Amino acid sequence: MIVDVCTNVRETLQKINIKGEMHFDIPLSSLTTIRTGGPAAAAVYPRLFRDITELIPRLREAGIPYTVMGAGSNILADDAGYPGCIIDMKHMNRMTVRGLYVCAEAGIRLEQAIRRTTALMLSGLEYLSGIPGTIGGAVACNAGSFGQEICSLIDWVDYIDSEGYLRRFHRGDAPFAYRCSPFQTSDIIVETALRMTPGKTSEIVSRISRARSEREKRGHYSYPSAGSVFRNPDGIEITAGELIEQIGLKGYAVGGAQVSKKHGNIIINTGSATTGEIKKLIDFVRSRVQEETGILLEREIVYLE
Fold first, then answer.
1. Which residues are designated catalytic?
2. Is 254 a residue whose pLDDT tops 70?
């Protein structure tokens, strides 16, 4: 990473008075679930939304790129690192419940939110059980599984825009779509209000168990991965994973990167993979699927460069 870029990031951040932590030259392999990636110039861990409203204008003025990270579960970070600031939301993890409404800050882990709502006999999030993500990340990509999407629960979302202003999105202001939300890459989700439904604890726990069991069968937990690599294609019944499996690519490897032997739409890090190897494997799979089926798969995993 270029020394003067890192120096600019460090000097800019050290002039900002925020409640959260700051760290410099932090390996992205420690922040992503697939465990690859070079160093980021800096990582900031805000504790209050005011930390972010103070931070964003300063970064923009200094020309420093930034990106938000929750659990790092769908991110593939470049081997060369990231010449900017990672905004890690892990300390913004408070959650309050009022009747059927759950107000959850962006950094709360999905599993933590699911445990708390289950204890209160509130149903709605259990289909996301087993996903190593956060509420903020789930809203930003409209996470879903088993025919359910988190957008169906949303009442409002507080977020900070690219100018550093706190704004509120109300359900119905703009549409969500499959693995897409109205929030731009420069928007930072701060808190979300979800409207849950009453449920029996035994039934909620049963759905949680089924969700986790299904993900285990797909190989989500055997090796480090970033979850589903491709979106399911529109307009056809077959999934991306099934397409990849049909052309015989399960187990295919490039260096330490391998298409999971359990599920075609998961690429795993067998222990020594680089981001470069994973990208080569993604490109190869995408090209082969198009050659064999005529279908061009769209990437779901996000590249951080």
1. 179, 228, 300
2. yes
